Amino acid sequence: MKKILNNPVDYVDEMLEGLIAAHPHFYRLHGDSGRVVVRAMPGHRGKVGLVTGGGSGHLPVFTGYVGAGLLDACAIGDVFASPSAEQMADAIRFADQGAGVLRLYGNYGGDIMNFDMAGELVEFEDITCTTVVLADDVASAPLAEREKRRGVAGMVYAFKIAGAAAESGRDLAAVTKVAQKAADACRSIGAALSPCTVPQVGKPTFHIAEDEMEMGMGIHGEPGVWVDKLRPADAIAGEMMDRLLADMPLAKGDRVSVMVNSLGATPPEELYILYRIVKARLEAAGATIVMPLVGRYATSMEMAGVSFTLLKLDPELEGLLKAPCECAFWRV
Amino acid sequence: MKKILNNPVDYVDEMLEGLIAAHPHFYRLHGDSGRVVVRAMPGHRGKVGLVTGGGSGHLPVFTGYVGAGLLDACAIGDVFASPSAEQMADAIRFADQGAGVLRLYGNYGGDIMNFDMAGELVEFEDITCTTVVLADDVASAPLAEREKRRGVAGMVYAFKIAGAAAESGRDLAAVTKVAQKAADACRSIGAALSPCTVPQVGKPTFHIAEDEMEMGMGIHGEPGVWVDKLRPADAIAGEMMDRLLADMPLAKGDRVSVMVNSLGATPPEELYILYRIVKARLEAAGATIVMPLVGRYATSMEMAGVSFTLLKLDPELEGLLKAPCECAFWRV
Amino acid sequence: MSIDRAAVVAGITRLAAAMERDFDLLNTADGALGDGDLGVTMTRGMRMVAEGAEALPDDLGKALLACAQAFTKSSGSSYGTLMATGLMAMAKALKGRESCEAAEFSGLVALARDAMQARGKAELGGKTVLDSLNAVALATAGVSDPAAVATAAVQGARAAMEAFRDKPATVGRARIFAEKSRGLDDPGMLAMTEVVVALAG
Amino acid sequence: MSIDRAAVVAGITRLAAAMERDFDLLNTADGALGDGDLGVTMTRGMRMVAEGAEALPDDLGKALLACAQAFTKSSGSSYGTLMATGLMAMAKALKGRESCEAAEFSGLVALARDAMQARGKAELGGKTVLDSLNAVALATAGVSDPAAVATAAVQGARAAMEAFRDKPATVGRARIFAEKSRGLDDPGMLAMTEVVVALAG
Ligand SMILES: Nc1ncnc2c1ncn2[C@@H]1O[C@H](COP(=O)(O)OP(=O)(O)O)[C@@H](O)[C@H]1O
Ligand SMILES: Nc1ncnc2c1ncn2[C@@H]1O[C@H](COP(=O)(O)OP(=O)(O)O)[C@@H](O)[C@H]1O
Ligand SMILES: [Mg+2]
Ligand SMILES: [Mg+2]
Ligand SMILES: [Mg+2]
Ligand SMILES: [Mg+2]
């Protein structure tokens, strides 16, 4: 897959420059690192701050979800690389409105260490921080070792729900609690059909044969559950639903939201073909689908593939999911 | 590029099934052909109807733009194939609220013949129809032969503006006139980096070498201006802007909207890199950018590449562009 | 022997069978420079027409209108649309009549040709189905014996294919490959020739 | 001879030069099973530290804190973050002091090791930079002569690499390829060995 870029080392900075030029009413840069994106219209004084951070190359994740009813600030690293603790600290400083800051991010080594460290840096400045780590990818570890799982598209739901909770005026403990509840109620699985290329590397990060796919692969190409011949859409959707429902069984009367997400190159036409099966399986389990999300919510640049995320709702989560939010990529 | 599908002959019907299952509050099927998508919440009685039609494989074009402040109905064919005149006639019948119907579609042989024919079919039913054909692709014919140009992403602007005019209560002549004005004020150009595969064909429609790109290629792979080595992003954007501005020069004080559109696989990161140059060039020409659109607005499934569309505004067009609209893919 | 509903139904039966037979032939001819779907268009279209044949009314105008609608329903391709257009033009001329004479054939084909030309906005002489129809209309002009009309129609269609084979395509998808198209039959002309042969019986 | 600001600045100069030299070595070592960026991390990090060396204060705690911040600014990679963590731990211990003795070296390294272990949540014995630091702390424990401390530190780091070479990786990206990692030096251990060698002068 070919890329449109200039000097690969400028990829992230030029991307951010264009993002902010195109959407100045949503985003602006904060601090002097050039890698901290914050709300152009900051939340009100006394609102709990929400920050995230992670590598570039996943738009709308992470930066895109800065906005009203969503995140206050985001520290963004090179493609697939953690931002620095200093950048995260800058994001936390911006996000703090006197009510403390929730750090909400995916379960990756560099991000964890840096967010921990960023928390220590801002501790001296009397900013209280809490943490919720997203670990929704069922393919990356068995249920018994949930804390080892990677964070993937489920973080979009967590951003949304925590964002709505913060916007509604809840305190840090309450926002953290409901964000953790959302994180715990999320299950994701991905299937990749093609690799993607990290600009500074210049060649695909991994390889999938022309007639094969990899079930359960991570969003940077981390190994999955199996590699096999490409299957029909209904079979792929069926197996992905099997694995999600085995991990988080649903019962009659349950209410769930579901995200059918393209990893990048896979077009919406294919997502809708898959959605038929997703819907049928959820309804067969007796569940009611609330606000299904079909589109590109968490990607890996031009990688072809899909992920499904289930979010099991209770009345509190459902209310927060449906609350208004607005960024350049998503509006509820 | 690999695809996720079942039997290729079911591709369009399954896609529509999923689309409507996911967004029942936006879309529903009308008539018995299974290929006419209409607003779930029809426009008010007396509103001018807006219909389009064309081949599948371009989501959000065409079907996706059915919605409030946009289209009333859309007839959708197989991938890259015109729907039938009967289907178009069904779309027209639904769209008619007693005030007549504007047919707004791209300049392709099959679509033109069928829409003409559909108009004759509904003439007997006392439905008045007008037509605006979109021909915005500057690469497909010289300015002197504008009527031969293909219709590409510019149709999104035309849908938006005509949709807002119809919603505001203007009559058929007025809606047609402003839609034609929008069509005349649009210029587009595309650059393709990779082909795409029509499901029923099963292999890529055309070929582009691994290190090459084609400037000015059409959205079904129709030949363009040149094939050359892949250039840096800034050079690509610069040449595309050169060609657009040569075709429709801008002067100091002009107000324009611009769409930086992915043909499918190209990720938003790359669009934002390109947008820097688009913005710089427009500002250098003295123009002010209004409501830039950066994303996937008109695609060819998993094709990699981009298109730029310029829309030169006057106060009337600007007002209509900014008026509210809502569909599953776009909200203003 | 005049042409009535029964003759139309018999013609449909022969034509539908011919198009089943020519599925690959026409796809291949179209595939050389176009998108290879002409066999699909004709086979599907004639299947739809044949399905409705039993229910056709005696009014020849209404009967041909029903055939036209079957074509429009089955495909949005250029050729299917042109076929429907031609049928509609003939339908309009025959509205309210339950029979017509062989001597009227030439005039009806000319009506179809003109309507299709208006629809597709292409010139005569462009190596398309229009040139086949034009040749058939000319060859059958002034002929009134049913058998002679049939023979003249087939000869006219075949002669047009011969005459245009080495010219470049100017219309539709093949236009892009105008030079390559020299020496190849236009798929639309080929299809119309097979249609005429099948109708001639 | 005690360690003061001047000694720190001199150490930084040697270390920065060493990391420019080892850019490819470390990238290649990391690239075998990881993402090949360890040379980038160390070279960029030490460039940032060296840029700030002139402006370092006499307070050793504040000086090392500035070094830690330079590392965090330059990279978010695991190793850069661990380096910053270790430096911060030593900075805290030395806060308010303008010199320290060679005899304190072992204890300071142990503090860094423990802080980095807390940060990365990895066990000792996992074939990581922690095992290098642990070996250095043990090898220099109870030694107070500056030259003897330097020699012991280098020996300790090298011995740890030897000892762990044939074990499987258990931490970081290479963990996925645990079996393949046998026989290969852990890139983080290799980097720390080069750091210790450069500091020893
Ligand atoms: N505008 C036109 N006028 C007359 N004939 C046309 C026109 N366009 C196409 N044709 C005829 O239709 C044939 C191709 O039909 P078809 O395969 O259905 O086209 P497509 O697949 O491009 O829609 C051509 O060989 C030509 O005879
Ligand atoms: N959690 C951890 N605890 C201790 N050491 C670690 C940890 N994670 C990584 N390392 C060390 O860091 C080295 C890799 O560093 P680096 O290339 O920066 O990692 P990455 O590129 O994955 O962020 C490993 O060789 C190992 O010595
Ligand atoms: Mg064809
Ligand atoms: Mg066709
Ligand atoms: Mg590394
Ligand atoms: Mg790294």
Write the layout of secondary structure elements.
The complex is a heterotetramer, with two copies of chain A (332 residues) and two copies of chain C (201 residues).
Chain A: H1 11-22, E1 27-29, E2 36-39, E3 49-56, E4 73-79, H2 85-95, E5 101-106, H3 109-123, E6 129-134, H4 154-167, H5 172-184, E7 186-192, E8 212-215, E9 226-229, H6 233-247, E10 255-262, H7 268-284, E11 288-289, E12 293-295, E13 305-313, H8 315-322
Parallel strand pairs in A: 3-4, 3-5, 5-6, 10-11, 10-12
Antiparallel strand pairs in A: 1-2, 2-4, 7-8, 7-13, 8-9, 10-13
Helix pairs in contact in A: 2-3, 4-5, 6-7
Chain C: E1 3-4, H1 5-21, H2 23-31, H3 38-51, H4 60-74, H5 78-94, E2 99-100, H6 105-120, H7 129-140, H8 146-164, H9 178-181, H10 187-200
Antiparallel strand pairs in C: 1-2
Helix pairs in contact in C: 1-3, 1-10, 2-3, 2-10, 3-4, 4-5, 5-6, 6-7, 7-8, 7-10, 8-10
Residues 35, 37, 77 of chain C line the site of one magnesium ion.
List the defining traits of the structure above.
heterotetramer; A: 332 residues; Rossmann fold; Hypothetical Protein Tm841, Chain: A,domain 3; seven-stranded mixed β-sheet; 32% helix; globular; C: 201 residues; mainly alpha; Serine Threonine Protein Phosphatase 5, Tetratricopeptide repeat; 2 strands; 68% helix; binds adenosine-5'-diphosphate; binds magnesium ion
- The total tally of domains of chain A equals 2
What topology, given as strand order, has the largest sheet of chain C?
A: 1-2
What is the domain total for the residues of chain C? 1
Say which CATH homologous superfamily of chain C is assigned. DhaL domain
Beta-strand percentage range of chain C? under 5%
Alpha-beta content class of chain C:
mainly alpha
CATH class of the largest domain in chain A, anyone?
A: Alpha Beta
CATH fold category name of chain C: Serine Threonine Protein Phosphatase 5, Tetratricopeptide repeat
As for the CATH topology of the largest domain in chain A, it is: Rossmann fold
Can you count the beta strands of chain C?
2
Largest sheet of chain A: 7 strands, mixed
CATH architecture of the largest domain in chain A: 3-Layer(aba) Sandwich
Number of strands of chain A: 13
Distance between the termini of chain A: 33 Å
